[in-house]
Design brief:
two-stranded antiparallel ribbon, 498 residues, 2 strands, mainly alpha, Serine Threonine Protein Phosphatase 5, Tetratricopeptide repeat
Length: 498
């Protein structure tokens, strides 16, 4: 400090010293007043200009800080920290591309700046350029293999690249160095969840929730994902308890209401589920998911018209929301409207060809809901649908079909013994032998059985039940980088040049 204060008059040096103390004690308003006093006498003093920008930045006045960073950089264009803080201001204004440009300028001056690499990785994650963000974390780890924050950042990038096991490995290394790292525990829990290792994910979230200095948002994140893990394990009551704790902290948490509603639905508490779903206003599940879930409650409560209206509203909100189409198919199948049900299931498979539940349901309908015996013998013989050409069905007439002929013969054989029996019964009402009656009944049964036997598998089965589509919650995630850069990284001394 002496080298800097020697260039200033006593009053300016004193004000600068006071400003530094105010920054240190986080008294940013007074720090700005002190810097202004210095700048009244020394308009181009870089340390005062940058200091005021820092104070404004810490007060979340990012837009106001930018002109002061720009002034400082004109006077000292090779100051790495100034470029980083300028990028940080742009980042907080969500101008990510601009922020990235400033971080790159810092790295051009000092390629080994760990702070610049952190910030670059962070903004690349926000831009969903996770491969490049991963490279930043790996560069830091080459400089320091025990950097916990770099290991967490690496885990975050691997997580978003869906390399969940590698992400777990990175988080485990971070936890070896810092067993109480909240972000490593949360990240590991989320990665284990996406690996469907719900039982292993729960202890991670439990340890997070044991922390006494827990950020409210992270607490909610941990409770919800613990609840989701319990839900997927079928422990619905415990899941409801987690979601209720979230709502105890934030009664306006829409995701908490929706997820609690799903757990109540799984417990067949349809009225309770409906009450929770109706409280959802915004959030991850606010539109098609919510409307479909309300429809499912109405369906289970026996209000089919309301259910159908909700399913159609959900489809209108999101024409590619497969669960709404599937739920509509369930409704139609319960009403024996099998053709309508099939169309909904076919739409599901157009949206997602790997939707196994819809594929299985469609097979059930096709095997049990096709034409009856009469169609099999007569109508199906006349017209055969063989695929599509240019988007239209082609009707292909069969040249020769013997099924109608045989069908007519068997029907004739069926009526002959019936008529003979009636005539004999009237002619010889007392003398008709039991053996003759038995023979005639047998003669009637044979053609009747032959007539039905080939088409038994084609009978329409009334009341086919399709199981409702099961809701499977996804992880509720942190910011894309899965780590939060602490302000301590930016506690820059007024006289630091690097």
């Amino acid at each position: 400090m002496t080298s800097m204060s020697d260039k200033l008059d006593d009053d300016s040096a004193s004000w600068l010293q006071n400003a530094a103390q105010c920054l240190q004690s986080e008294d940013y308003n007074n720090a700005i007043l002190c810097f202004d006093k210095v700048l009244e006498r020394n308009a181009n003093l870089v340390v005062a200009i940058a200091g005021k920008a820092f104070a404004l930045e810490y007060m979340n006045k990012h837009k106001e800080a930018i002109p002061f960073y720009d002034r400082a950089l004109k006077l000292d264009p090779n100051n790495v920290r100034f470029w980083i803080m300028r990028g940080h201001a742009a980042f907080n204004l969500k101008n990510y591309v601009e922020a990235l440009q400033h971080y790159k300028k810092a790295l051009k001056i000092d390629p080994g700046s760990i702070l610049a690499l952190y910030e670059t990785g962070r903004v690349l994650s926000e831009l969903e350029r996770h491969e490049e963000a991963l490279q930043c974390a790996e560069k830091i780890l080459r400089l320091d293999q025990n950097d916990v924050d770099a290991l967490i950042a690496k885990g975050g990038s691997l997580f978003f690249l869906k390399k969940y096991q590698e992400a777990v490995n990175s988080y485990n290394k971070a936890l070896e160095l810092d067993p109480d790292s909240i972000h490593a525990l949360v990240g590991k829990g989320l990665a284990l969840y996406d690996l469907t290792k719900y039982g292993e994910a729960i202890p991670c979230f439990d340890k997070v929730l044991e922390s006494h200095k827990l950020d409210k948002n992270i607490m909610i994140l941990a409770q919800i994902n613990k609840g989701n893990s319990l839900y997927n394990l079928g422990q619905y009551m415990d899941a409801i308890e987690c979601y209720s704790r979230v709502l105890g902290v934030n009664q306006f948490n829409d995701d908490g209401y929706f997820l609690r509603g799903q757990a109540k639905f799984a417990l067949e508490d349809y009225s309770g589920a409906l009450e929770d779903f109706n409280k959802v206003r915004t959030g991850q599940f606010a539109t098609a998911e919510k409307i479909t879930s309300i429809g499912q409650c109405y369906y289970e409560l026996g209000f089919y018209e309301e259910a159908e209206n909700n399913y159609r509203e959900a489809i209108k909100a999101d024409p590619k929301f497969k669960r709404a189409f599937y739920s509509l198919a369930v409704l139609y199948a319960s009403e024996n409207k099998f053709e309508r049900a099939k169309k909904q299931l076919e739409t599901c498979l157009k949206i997602d060809r790997n939707f196994i539940q819809a594929r299985d349901a469609l097979k059930r309908l096709q095997s049990s809901g096709q034409s009856n015996w009469y169609d099999w013998w007569f109508r199906d013989a006349d017209i055969d649908y063989r695929g599509k050409a240019e988007g239209k069905k082609r009707k292909i007439k069969k040249i020769v079909s013997f099924k109608p002929i045989f069908g007519a013969i068997f029907i004739s054989l069926l009526f002959v013994p019936i008529i003979v029996t009636i005539i004999l019964a009237f002619m010889y009402p007392t003398n008709l032998a039991a053996s003759v009656v038995g023979g005639l009944i047998f003669a009637t049964a044979v053609p009747f059985g032959v007539l039905l036997l080939p088409s038994l598998r084609k009978f329409k089965a009334a009341g086919i039940e399709l199981e409702p589509a099961i809701f499977v919650p996804e992880t509720i995630k942190l910011a894309p980088s899965l780590f939060i850069l602490d302000k301590s990284y930016h506690k820059l001394t007024l006289y630091s040049s690097a």
